[in-house]
Specification:
By secondary structure, the chain is mostly helical. Helix content is 56%, strand content 0%.
Length: 103
């Protein structure tokens, strides 16, 4: 005998997780009120959405002057290290390490 068979059921759902008659009776007074609340929320949401789309669609930007693109420099400066400078710096480090090892 399983433990679940010995424990009393205190649920509005049967063993197949379907609503029992008690749950249907308990929810019945709220059915109409819940339907009207849901319809009201749905109508409000659709109204806000429609008003927003309508308000944005009416915007007219034809009177705004769009400035020309700023002139571009002939060459954008490279932000990183120059390759020759990097190689020179590495060579200096190698020379310093060699001198340190000999001294």
């Amino acid at each position: 005998m399983a433990i679940s068979d010995r424990l009393p059921r205190s649920s509005y759902y049967d063993k197949h997780y379907r609503q029992t008659a008690a749950l249907i009776r308990a929810r019945q007074p709220y059915l109409v009120r819940n339907i009207f609340t849901g319809l009201g929320l749905f109508a409000f949401t659709i109204g806000v959405y429609s008003w927003t789309i309508n308000a944005v669609a009416q915007d007219d930007f034809s009177d705004i002057v769009v400035p020309d693109a700023p002139p571009q420099a002939a060459r954008t400066p490279h932000v990183g290290h120059d390759k020759a400078a990097t190689e020179e710096m590495l060579n200096d480090r190698k020379e310093a390490a060699v001198k340190k090892g000999m001294a």
